[in-house]
Write a structure and sequence with these properties.
This protein is α/β, with parallel strands linked by helices. It is built from 14 helices and 14 strands. Helices cover 45% and strands 17% of the residues. A six-stranded parallel β-sheet has the order 2-1-3-4-5-13, sandwiched between helices. A six-stranded mixed β-sheet has the order 7-6-8-9-10-14, with helices on both faces. Strands 11-12 form a two-stranded antiparallel sheet. α2 packs across α3 and α6 crosses α14. The longest helix has 16 residues. One of its GO terms (molecular function) is transcription cis-regulatory region binding.
Length: 345
């Protein structure tokens, strides 16, 4: 079936194509009665505006861009990004916006993609993830003028609008909880070391461990995959100062760590306590169910999308020369079956 055109509407309505264009774009030049007839015909035959033509005319694309520098195979099993995207989509779809997603292998590619999308008027704004220290993407996007919301701490977001949560509060709650159970040797299996949120969590972990006078605390960095989570767990279990509790930066690694501990004949939580970050359904279907730092990730994505759409619409609040962002709720600890007091001795 041929795609309906403005010419088809004009023939049905008995008017010129110019009149149809005026009516569909709510411009003066046609009567309200004729405008209503034209729009009814357009709806009846299933006409939709051509996005390329709208871009040429300077109209909005009604699309938001998101690039992710992770292997595509990881995104398929990473609950965080799936839940984040679901939250973004829930807000965009309610406002008839689309999400344009592209996976890249290098952060430098992200800027080129955003530059192309913006130049071709394919997006009205973008969401930036995996914020780094002195992130060159921030500077490039500031110069580009593309409306952008950063999922990351305001300290490294430059003039871009940040949406973030205070991870230090969650780290402290987890370590204090494990210490209250009696643990004195706690390890952290972290994500990518170049990311801002990883470093902030590392710093908070080290500070609270020292403050509480723990015997030892260890940090191991990974790429967030289950393989790396299991490998880090085996190394920690095999170390001379074996930890009695491990906090993981995502639930994929925590589940893999649980399996690795059980393979090495350790009882969870009798011999080893495990805490996961993010708390997807995956944390709750394994046995024992994982104690987790829980946060509403879909809501986090929705807040980012809502903030960006406000920015695109020119509604961003400016206070003291700086555009304000949105601080989401910090993750909270949800104790389950994977944590208990450490073994005696």
């Amino acid at each position: 079936m041929k795609r309906p055109t403005i010419a088809d509407i004009a023939r049905r309505a008995g008017v010129s194509k110019v009149a149809v264009s005026y009516a569909l774009n709510d411009r003066p030049g046609v009567s309200e009665a004729k405008r209503a007839v034209i729009k009814a015909i357009a709806e009846e035959i299933g006409w939709r505006p051509n996005s390329a033509a709208r871009a040429l005319s300077g109209a909005r694309a009604h699309t938001i861009g998101l690039t992710v520098c992770r292997p595509a195979r990881i995104l398929g099993v990473e609950p965080f990004f799936m839940e984040l995207i679901s939250g973004i989509e829930s807000e965009l779809s309610a406002r008839s916006y689309a999400l344009m997603l592209q996976v890249v292998t290098d952060p430098g590619q992200e800027v080129e993609i955003y530059r192309r999308w913006w130049g071709e008027r394919r997006v009205d704004g973008a969401i930036l993830v995996d914020l780094r220290f002195s992130d060159p993407r921030v500077t490039e996007l500031e110069e580009l003028g593309l409306p952008v919301v950063v999922l990351g701490h305001p300290s490294e977001a430059g003039t871009l609008v940040p949406v973030w949560s205070d991870d230090t509060v969650a780290v402290r709650e987890a370590v204090e909880y494990l210490t209250a159970l009696g643990h004195r040797r706690i390890a952290r299996v972290a994500g990518l070391p170049e990311l801002v949120h990883t470093v902030l969590r590392d710093q908070a972990f080290t500070a609270v461990c020292r403050e509480l006078g723990l015997e030892s605390h260890t940090i191991m960095h990974t790429d967030y995959t289950g393989d790396e989570g299991a490998r880090a767990t085996r190394r920690l279990i095999g170390s001379p100062a074996r930890p009695t509790a491990i906090v993981y930066d995502n639930d994929i690694m925590a589940v893999a760590g649980l399996s690795a501990a059980q393979e090495m004949r350790l009882d969870v939580p009798g011999d080893l306590s495990i805490v996961a970050w993010d708390d997807s359904p995956l944390s709750q279907v394994v046995r024992p169910a994982l104690t987790a730092l829980s946060r509403d990730i879909p809501a986090y994505g929705a807040h980012a999308a809502r903030t960006l759409l406000s920015l695109v619409a020119g509604e961003g609040e400016v206070t003291g020369g700086e555009i304000t962002g949105f601080e989401d709720r910090a993750a909270r600890l949800v104790p389950r079956g994977s944590t208990a007091p450490p073994p005696a001795g």
